[in-house]
# Entry
Amino acid sequence: MPTYTLNVNGRDLQAAVSSPEMPLLWVLRDVLGLTGTKYGCGIEICGACTVWINGQPEKSCDIDVSSAVGQRITTIEGLSPDRSHPAQKAWVLHQVPQCGYCQSGMLMSVAGSMNAGHHGAEIANEVDNLCVCGTYQRIKTAVAGL
# Structure
């Protein structure tokens, strides 16, 4: 089985996978045990699988593991291990999650927009992740203060 070295959350990790085409999402979850990144649709629409590749939000369901080699990957576990990121604090303050399934991808998209220098309504307009529980009003309220 081929082994790939991936830089995930600032650490070089070895991932032995059956195929170079295995989606990064499954490598993160099933091989490396980082289950914060979620599977939603598998076709880059919902955003539940959002991680950062070199600081940019990307959908991990459609990135091959071989394409991720040499890239800096950040998952929700690496965003802020102590939950001190401003977006995480806003999520708690405004009680954003309902079921919570989409929230790790949503937070990675929001934090990525913040890293690009965007604020408030800009973030709300830019992030296109889906939330099946419909917590969009709480998301907008939380993002308004960022």
